[in-house]
Structures are given as structure tokens and as C-alpha cells.
Design a protein that fits this description.
By secondary structure, this protein is α/β, with parallel strands linked by helices. It has a single domain, classed as 3-Layer(aba) Sandwich (Hypothetical Protein Ychn, Chain: A). It is 46% helix and 17% strand. Helix 4 links the parallel strand 3 and strand 4. Helix 2 runs parallel beside helix 3.
């Protein structure tokens, strides 16, 4: 009987560890890809709604090409509303904003023109790929 207990103990420990791992809460991680300036305010509203439904979601916005426009100093929507207020609100809710340096370089835009809430990354597409493949982020293109 003692031998059975000795043999079963590692198995029970392994099963217990697996059950504990299976019960660990998973974090919802999402990357929003902005690559054009057609309607960034709609995408920002999508993110706000997403956070209202899932307050603990980890959201990263990656902007490249003309999709960076709303993250530039002084940018306003078609109605004259500044984007920086919405960006600040979402940043306060832990949304991260990342801007493609390749785009900045290609368009001749200085890094000093990017809102302080945004981080500059070497490549927007590489950042999206990294987030998806290495960090398990879901992909949304608003």
C-alpha cells in the first residue's frame, strides 16, 4: 500500500498543478491596427466600447501609414474635435499607442510631432506581427 502511495503521489501533484494552471484567468489581449485616416474616431470609439465591455482587456493600438495622423500634435477630426483628448482618456485606461518610425521617416515627420501618449516603434507591421505571434494578441482592424 505504501508503494502505491509513493507511485501515485507524483501523478496527483502533476494533476493538481495542471488543474491550477487550467483555472488561471486568461488576459484578453488585443492589437488594433490603424493604417489609414478614413475614420480614426470610429476606431477609438470601438476601443472605448471594448473597454466598457471588458475593462481588464490589454489593448495596444499600432498606427502606420496615414493611420498615424490622429496621433500627431494638433490633429482634429472632420468636425474639428481634437484627437488628443480621446487618446489621453484611453491612455488613462491603459491603452498603449505605438507609432511606426518607418512611416515617420518616410513622410518626413519629426518624432517631436507625435503625441506624448504614443511610443515610437521601429516598424508598425513588425510590431503587429510580434504582438500576435509572440505575445498572443488578437488582431482587430477597425
Amino acid at each position: 500500500m505504501k508503494l502505491i502511495r509513493i507511485l501515485l503521489l507524483p501523478l496527483l501533484l502533476l494533476l493538481g498543478a495542471s488543474a491550477a494552471q487550467a483555472e488561471a484567468p486568461r488576459v484578453e489581449k488585443v492589437v488594433y491596427h490603424f493604417s489609414d485616416n478614413n475614420n480614426p474616431m470610429q476606431g477609438l470609439r470601438n476601443i472605448r466600447n471594448h473597454l466598457n465591455a471588458s475593462p481588464k482587456a490589454q489593448i495596444v493600438v499600432v498606427a502606420l501609414s496615414s493611420g498615424i495622423d490622429f496621433l500627431l500634435d494638433g490633429a482634429k477630426d472632420k468636425n474639428g474635435n481634437p484627437y488628443d483628448i480621446v487618446v489621453q482618456e484611453l491612455a488613462a485606461r491603459n491603452v498603449q499607442f505605438r507609432v511606426c518610425n518607418n512611416t515617420l521617416t518616410g513622410l518626413g515627420i519629426g518624432k517631436d510631432k507625435v503625441l506624448p501618449e504614443a511610443t515610437i516603434v521601429p516598424s508598425g507591421v513588425a510590431e503587429i506581427s510580434r504582438l500576435q505571434s509572440m505575445e498572443g494578441y488578437a488582431y482587430i482592424k477597425p
